[in-house]
Amino acid sequence: MILKYQFGHVLPTGAVYCPEAVAKTRVLKRGSAAQIPHFTMLPDGQLFYRLGDEDVVYGLGEQARGINKRGWHYESLNTDDPNQNEGRTALYGAHNFLLIDGAERFGIFLDTPEKVEYDIGYTNYDELVVKPPKDYDLYVLEGESDLEILKLLRKLTGPSYLPPKWAFGFGQSRWGYKSARDVRKIVKKYRELQMPIDMVYMDIDYMEDYKSFTVDAEKFPKFKKFNEEMAAEGIRLIPIIDAGIKIQPGYPVYDEGTEKGYFCTKADGTPFVLGVWPGRCVFPDVLNPRAAVWFGDQYKALTDAGVRGFWNDMNEPSIFYTEDRLKEAFPRVAAYEDQDPGAVTFFEMRDVMGRLSNDPADYKAFYHQIGKKRVRHDKVHNIYGQKLTEAAAEGLKRAVPEERTLLFSRSSSIGLHRESGIWFGDNISWFSHILMNLKSAVNANMAGFLYSGADVAGFVGDATPDLAMRWLELGIFLPLLRNHSSRYTREQEFFRFGMEADFRNLLKLRYALIPYLYSEFMKAALSDGLFVRPLGFMYPEDARARRVEDQAFIGECVMIAPVYEQNATGRYVYVPEPMRLFRMRSAEDYDTEVLQKGEYFIEAALNEVLVFVPKGKALPLAKAEGVRSVRDLKPGFERVLKYGETAVSYEFYEDDGLSREAGPDHVRKLKL
Length: 672
Ligand code: GLC
Hints:
Elements: E1 2-7, E2 24-28, E3 40-41, E4 47-50, E5 56-59, E6 72-76, E7 93-94, E8 97-101, E9 105-111, E10 116-120, E11 127-131, E12 136-141, H1 146-157, E13 170-172, H2 180-192, E14 199-202, H3 223-232, E15 236-242, E16 245-246, H4 252-260, E17 274-276, E18 279-282, H5 289-297, H6 300-303, E19 309-313, E20 321-322, H7 323-334, H8 343-354, E21 367-370, E22 373-376, H9 384-399, E23 406-409, E24 412-413, E25 421-423, H10 432-446, E26 452-453, E27 455-456, H11 465-475, E28 481-483, H12 500-526, E29 532-533, H13 535-538, E30 552-554, E31 558-560, E32 570-575, E33 579-584, E34 590-595, E35 598-603, E36 609-614, E37 618-621, E38 639-642, E39 649-653, E40 667-671
Parallel strand pairs: 1-2, 7-24, 13-14, 13-28, 14-15, 15-19, 19-23, 23-25, 25-26, 27-28
Antiparallel strand pairs: 1-12, 3-4, 4-11, 5-8, 6-10, 8-9, 9-12, 10-11, 16-18, 17-18, 17-20, 21-22, 29-30, 30-31, 31-36, 32-35, 33-34, 33-36, 37-38, 39-40
Helix pairs in contact: 5-9, 7-8
Alpha-D-glucopyranose binds next to loops.
């Protein structure tokens, strides 16, 4: 059952897809003595819930901490900050959903484009306090199981985005590929080494002066032809699109947007000027429906050249500096010139520039035109990325109506999960971020972003051969498998580190898994379920399973337990029911044993992946030999990994992987 409580008048966010799913609506006054199930409303409007000792608090989507959110405080405040560490309270997404699993079981969803704060046992371990803005809609979700509550959330906010099947292939990326030659070299190397690959991502260097929707004709001459050449090789080019539009008369996107009044303005009506990669920029006002259509239509410049996938970046929106503040900062720094730069003075001076980025005051300095209203940005901040990527999705539907396209965004809020995936932004080449990747996958899935992934081997910092391999051992199970890194780091394509046979085997194993992954993904999306599942959802009665954060189920048949410590020769694994372990060096080469319920230290050499299949389940593997890209995968399976000898029934989803129609009629019952 879904109950709705309205506080004030929230600006429509577009998060709710099916308002009819709500059983009852009440309009409440903030801070009144009104009864809300489970919560006490404090006089200042905060929502208070007393946590039991055993309660697990799931939710909040993209955040730097665990699956169980207890013991920290969080914000929904979309922020671009590459320093992803445990101290962070917000990342790029605002996913205002919590699921309390314990003495009571219920979920809440706060529909608001503004900042929300959560204290989940941070001040007091047994207190959950939600600090909402003045205007918001609160949905209380009551269900019998965790999964049922999640399904209610999805019923309310709509089904998850469906990517094309080729988007389950491997993609290589680097902020640093500067020309068609660079891209060709990468593809050639992967092909030579027979490492399957489907996508090469194009970061900002493909553009002319970092201008979105342009292609540098010198570095990428005859782009359409180049795209065709790559397509013939089985490679899709996936360009980045940035939110900031460069101020440059003569650049059609800038000229047209200016003429039509489609950029955000300051209180006095003049353009809001900020700096990101291209230098001085303006933001497209994608909250204005007309501007959104116009922005979405810009993608045609690239779809006309044959492009079928995009990643939308910098759409929190990220601000390196604003013109106004930069003007103030220079004289302030200059004033330090005659002073003795003692440590304190020096750090103060450094901060004058350092604090310019993402300054909260700047987010109050520009406006959107929503219908007849002018709305200050901070009132709608958390849906900017969503609106920008929705505009893209709509544009892509107009441009390529017959095909599913690949689209993922850095910034998001619940609602965008209907139109796009997300990636987790600028992570770090650290072993701890392998584990963070697994947790993020679970958390993003709960928020509806089934198609999601992290930069495998890490974006910031230098990857090492063993890190790349261990990370890939996790990445092969997650929908968005992309190796991406910053230009300031060691090159980390999977052919850079030696051990080529091992990397090849892992990538081939990924391709052998694709029919299963795609099947489980589509079933999860079509049934409003989860693709990556925490153990607590699979074994709700098992107190030990509810605490496991470094293992997960991928679909219904496979439990994974990645190694995420350097130099580890294996790891402890909790086996929650009898399972068969496959210690896999490739799709063909593995050893196997049956494990009863219990805790084990399981050996896993650097090139070995641990795969667990419970009794009664089966993992079908396709033939990956000779497969260069997804399109080479042949129907049927080469082998089935299962617990015992007896045949197991499996519901297999299979379609053409491309057309927009998808549905349960594509499910066949197989005996494996
Ligand atoms: C941002 C993105 C990153 C990209 C870089 C340059 O930091 O998160 O993925 O490589 O910008 O475009």
